Amino acid sequence: MTLDGAWESMFWAVFQTSSNPIVVLDDRERIVEINDAALALIGARRLETVGTSMQTRFSPDTRPAAERTWQQMLQAGEYVGAQRILQLDGPEIEVDYASRLIEVSGRKLVVVVVLPLEKPRFSSAATTADTAQLSAREREVVALVALGLETPEIAKELYISEHTVRTHVRNAMARLGARTRAHLVAIALSGQLLQLDDVTARDS
Fold first, then answer.
1. Cβ proximity of 19 and 185 under 8 Å
2. From CA 1, how far away is CA 173, in angstroms rounded?
3. What is the Cα–Cα distance from 132 to 192, expressed in whole angstroms?
4. CA triplet 96, 99, 100: central angle to 5 degrees?
5. For 163-186, what is each residue's pLDDT tens digit?
6. 199: closest CA among 15, 1, 2?
7. CATH number of the domain at 5-116, out of 3.40.50.150, 3.30.450.20, 3.20.20.370, 3.90.79.10?
8. pLDDT tens per residue, range 66-86
9. Of the N and C termini of the chain, which has fewer Cβ atoms inside 10 Å?
10. Which residues of the chain does CATH 3.30.450.20 include?
11. Which CATH architecture fits 136-203?
């Protein structure tokens, strides 16, 4: 998926402001950029993280499988799964993640959305639903999920019930073939499913 100028601006706006941990990698799995939420998750600083291999953040016994997963992702264009990652001064944590291949300013990059998990779920199935159309309300909900808001916060922001929020999230995930919230965010960030207004309206 190639990001045009307006979409690229929206992508970086969500990347910087989201409370979802998000990492951008190059095609050699090196960290190109990492947002504050991801830095907080691993307990690291940007200067010591950018330019390093993502593999160094994985539990050592998972790295061979992670390398195979990386190659699958490069071929399929996306991957959804779970991984154990290392915190700088803490225990390993289990996370759910979704990776998507994108093109930004002529450069192939991989956006990775990471969410801590209690029960890992694995899937390597790629979705072809990038062209699926969401309703305006579903786009609003997905935009807020991408920014890292939880169901009660989204309900308050949009003046709707938590049940309605969950319904919109469930419907959006079904339409887009997303298996987890992390997968939903990755799809939203790597395909033109949102509009700038969905994000900028909240910032104004």
1. no
2. 19
3. 10
4. 150
5. 999 999 999 999 888 989 999 988
6. 15
7. 3.30.450.20
8. 999 999 999 999 999 999 998
9. C
10. 5-116
11. Orthogonal Bundle (1.10)
Q: What angle do CA 77, 4, 182 make, to 5 degrees?
A: 45
What is the 3 state secondary structure string of the chain? CECCHHHHHHHHHHHHHCCCCEEEECCCCEEEEECHHHHHHHCCCHHHHCCCEHHHHECHHHHHHHHHHHHHHHHHCEEEEEEEECCCCCCCEEEEEEEEEEEECCEEEEEEEEEECCCCCCECCCCCCCCCCCCHHHHHHHHHHHCCCCHHHHHHHHCCCHHHHHHHHHHHHHHHCCCCHHHHHHHHHHCCCCCHHHHHHHHC
Angle at 94 between CA 93 and CA 98, to 5 degrees: 125
Side by side, which strands form the sheet with 22-25?
Answer: 31-34, 22-25, 107-116, 93-104, 78-85
Could you tell me how far CA 76 lies from the centroid of its own chain? Answer: 17
Contact 133, 42 (CB under 8 A): no
- How far apart are the C-alpha atoms of 3 and 204, rounded to whole Å? 24
Q: Residue 200 pLDDT more than 70?
A: no
Q: Which residue is associated with the tokens 């998926």?
A: 1
